[in-house]
């Protein structure tokens, strides 16, 4: 075997692109690299949510083609669109956004009406969070008692 055939291909990790996105507050990151010894172009893409992930993948493909690489000959190391982890990540992103929104609504409510106490407070918070009826208020009240007692 030739020395070139023995070259270990070292892909650019997606977590590097993700770190750049976090550090520089970017929603899409595309990294291109070229290994002259192996004559291989590497592309790593990252998007912060499903919409941006799709755009990042498309941008990565376009950039790779623009530098003359053949997409048909590519090896895919990780494709968020086909991994269960990516589906979980997308769900987690949505839940985190919903929780942040609920937290902002609660802070706004408390700023406007004070923290209050007891049943009325639990009922109002339950309504803000979209819970229906007394059961929702009971759940929120139990949560508040647990948090306030901690």
Task: Write out key terms for the chains shown.
disordered N terminus; 5 helices; 2 domains; two-stranded antiparallel ribbon; single chain; mainly alpha; 150 residues
Radius of gyration: 24 Å
What's the SSE pattern?
HEEHHHH
- How much helix, percentage-wise, in residues? 55-70%
State the distance separating the first and last CA atoms. 66 Å
Number of strands: 2
Averaging pLDDT over every residue, what do you get?
76
* Count of separate DSSP helical elements: 5
Q: Shape from CA axes? A: elongated
Strand arrangement in the largest pleated sheet: 1-2
Per DSSP, what share of the residues sits in E-state strands of 2 or more residues?
5-15%
Q: Which structural class should the secondary elements be placed in?
A: mainly alpha
Let me know the largest β-sheet.
Answer: 2 strands, antiparallel
Low confidence ranges: 1-5
The count of domains is 2
Task: Kindly summarize this structure in a few lines.
The chain has about 150 residues and is mainly alpha-helical. Helix content is about 55%, strand content about 10%.
Describe this structure in words.
- This protein is mainly alpha-helical and 150 residues long.
- It has 2 domains: 14-82, no CATH class; 86-149, no CATH class.
- The chain has helices spanning 14-24, 50-66, 84-113, 118-128, 133-149, and strands at residues 28-35, 40-47.
- It has a two-stranded antiparallel sheet with strand order 1-2.
- Helix 4 (118-128) packs across helix 5 (133-149).
- The longest helix is centred in the middle third of the chain and has 30 residues, at 84-113.
- The radius of gyration is 24 Å and the shape is elongated.
- Residues 1-5 have low confidence and may be disordered.
